[in-house]
Write a structure and sequence with these properties.
Chain lengths: 120, 526
């Protein structure tokens, strides 16, 4: 059974792009366009990895990440963002449970490589 | 008290003491003598009478005559014959007979022994009693004679009066004598005093005439010398004073002038102080305005920063799907060759746009000071080797040789790895862009407290005029080259901003047509 990935971004085109790339690699892909939708989907379906944007309206990626980390059966989470974070911040986030941090803009090869690594 | 009275009183009191003492001694002696003679007389009488009575008793011949004569004496008071038991047996006044003799004189004390006698004196010296023991038959009786001492007192009074009289008279005489003598002796002294007073009043040079061979005469001579000296000094002083007065007048005038100046300066200072306080108030107002402006500026700065982040997001986001899909499409197997070329062109331009957006955002951040640096100790050798490794493919694509030469082990520097990699990539990328054949060499060396990093190429080089300008924004060597080489014209400005932030410097050395060498420095970690 293929691994399930939930892509969360307020930009539908970006969601579609990631969905295309990941599907072509054989993953099962779910989508959400804001934090609330993401949390709802996580309640109803078992997800292996959440690819989470940070700058979203209403609820930021930081908040969503915090909520997910409090869940009992939690999926892996990787941020996909154009926000540059320092290596210190990154290692702090990793300690809190983050799996990876993918910078935008990404290339197809980049994102595929990182997702594969996380889902090993 | 004047000297006269001092001498007078001293001498007078001494004399009075001597006179009184002498008088007292004389008086005392006289009184003693008078008293003695009275007592002696009465003692003899008592003895005599007692003897006559003893004999008269034996011979029955009573001495009436002796007793009568006794009673006629001027100082006679009484006579008694007292028996053993103290009863008066016989008396000149018969009313006493049969009464107790001791009852009249209680403090009498013991009677004299056989053949003895006793004198009893009244403590007030008014009377005396002479008591003589006698033998009448076998009985031992006593014979008492009382006598008055009034005579003695009378004599005493006369003597006292006489002495007082003599004293007073001699004192008066003494006073007069003393007065005259002392006055005479003190006369030269008064003259001296008057002379001194005159000198005191200002009549210096005054001399006094005293003709005496004693100390007074010497004093007068000394005084006269002193007076002459004083006159001389005073004359000198007067002359000096006149000069001094002139000086003082001049000085006073100068001082007044100076005081005027000072007062003027004071007034001026007060004016200045007023001005200063006004200026101060103005300054405070200005300061408040500046503070307000500062607050607004900070607010604005924060807004700008927020805007920049938003802008970055908004500008970068649309390019993500464009580049992403083109990237996917170019690997598709269903494309015709010309379609594949078209997609490559789209992809290349989209990437260029992405790069430009990044450059513009970096420039803005550097200018706003909002670029974040993550400074850590790092080794420049690793930085250079990684860059050369990453860029080797691009260099090889143009048939260029890219090599690193690091002659020694370099010390660590403090730096942001991401940003320094950006600088290195930019410089090497430029070198590749502007070099058609030859070698690009990257090397580094320690120089003082810094590391110097070089990126050297064998490319077209830079004209001397252009060298200072290439680190400014939007400058490119030649507009005709622009289309050929692409780029935003911001790369070197960003490099400069990053290196400056690290505390280093960046510059270029070049020979037109032969190649360029870009150099930047980074301070060694202390």
């Amino acid at each position: 059974m293929p691994k399930k990935i939930l892509v969360v971004d307020d930009e539908p085109d970006t969601v579609e792009l990631m969905k295309s790339i990941l599907k072509s690699e054989g993953y099962s892909v779910e989508t959400a366009y804001n934090g609330k939708e993401c949390l709802d989907k996580l309640k109803s379906a078992k997800v292996d990895l959440v690819l989470l944007d940070i700058m979203m309206p209403d609820m930021s990626g930081w908040d969503v990440f915090g909520r997910i980390m409090k869940m009992r059966a939690k999926p892996k989470v990787a941020f996909v963002s154009i926000i540059e974070v320092s290596p210190e911040r990154k290692s702090t986030l990793m300690k809190q449970g983050l799996s990876d941090y993918i910078m935008k803009p990404f290339t197809k090869d980049e994102i595929v490589k990182k997702v594969k690594k996380v889902l090993v | 008290m004047k000297l006269f009275w001092k001498i007078f009183a001293t001498v007078f009191i001494s004399f009075v003491v001597i006179i009184v003492a002498t008088s007292y001694i004389t008086l005392d002696r006289d009184l003693y003598y008078i008293k003695d003679s009275i007592i002696e007389e009465n003692g003899i009488l008592a003895e005599f009478t007692a003897r006559e009575m003893e004999i008269g008793y034996l011979e029955s011949k009573w001495p009436f005559e002796t007793l009568r004569k006794l009673s006629e004496r001027s100082d006679f008071l009484f006579w008694w014959v007292v028996m053993d038991d103290g009863t008066i047996h016989l008396a000149d006044n018969t009313s006493f007979v049969g009464t107790g003799a001791y009852d009249y004189f209680p403090g009498m004390g013991e009677m004299p022994g056989e053949g003895g006698e006793k004198l009893f004196e009244d403590p007030g010296q008014r009377y005396g009693i002479f008591i003589k023991s006698m033998k009448i038959g076998t009985s031992r009786w006593t014979f008492w004679i009382g006598f008055s001492m009034r005579e003695m007192q009378e004599a005493m009074r006369i003597i006292v009066i006489t002495i007082i009289l003599i004293s007073v008279l001699s004192m008066a005489a003494l006073s007069i004598f003393l007065y005259l003598t002392v006055k005479y002796f003190l006369k030269p002294l008064n003259k001296l005093r008057e002379g001194a007073l005159m000198i005191g009043k200002g009549e210096a040079g005054k001399e006094i005439k005293i003709k005496a061979g004693d100390e007074m005469g010497d004093l007068a001579k000394t005084f006269n010398e002193m007076s002459r000296e004083l006159k001389k000094s005073r004359d000198d002083l007067e002359r000096y004073n006149k000069g001094l007065e002139k000086d003082v007048r001049e000085r006073t005038r100068e001082l007044e002038k100076k005081m005027d100046d000072i007062n003027k300066a004071k007034a001026a200072t007060l004016n200045i102080m007023e001005d200063i306080s006004e200026a101060n108030e103005e300054l405070e107002t200005k300061q408040k305005e500046i503070e307000k402006a500062n607050r607004e500026l900070k607010k604005f700065d924060r807004l700008k920063s927020e805007f920049m982040n938003m802008g970055a997001h908004e500008l970068k986001t649309p390019l993500i799907p464009i580049v992403g899909y083109l990237d996917m499409m170019k690997d598709s197997r269903n494309l015709k060759p010309d379609q594949k070329d078209q997609i490559d062109i789209c992809l290349r331009n989209a990437r260029r746009l992405q790069m430009m957006v990044n450059d513009i955002l970096d420039t803005s951040k550097l200018e706003a000071g909002s670029m974040k640096f993550d400074m850590k100790p790092m080794n420049p050798t690793v930085l250079i080797k990684n860059t050369v490794k990453d860029m080797a493919k691009d260099a090889a694509a143009k048939g260029l040789k890219l090599a690193d030469e690091i002659p020694e082990k370099l010390p660590n520097i403090m730096g942001d790895e991401y940003r320094l990699t950006q600088v290195m990539a930019n410089l090497v990328n430029n070198a590749i862009k502007y070099t058609d054949k030859g070698t690009i060499t990257v090397y580094a060396q320690r120089k003082g407290n810094s590391i110097e990093v070089y990126v050297q190429d064998t490319g077209i080089g830079i004209a001397k005029n252009d060298m200072p300008k290439i680190f400014t924004k939007f400058f490119q060597v030649d507009t005709s080259e622009k289309r050929k080489h692409g780029g935003t014209g911001l790369g070197l400005a960003i490099c400069k901003g990053i290196i400056k932030h690290h505390g280093g410097n960046i510059w270029v050395e070049s020979n037109l047509g032969k190649g360029s060498r870009f150099i930047f420095t980074l301070p060694i970690k202390k």
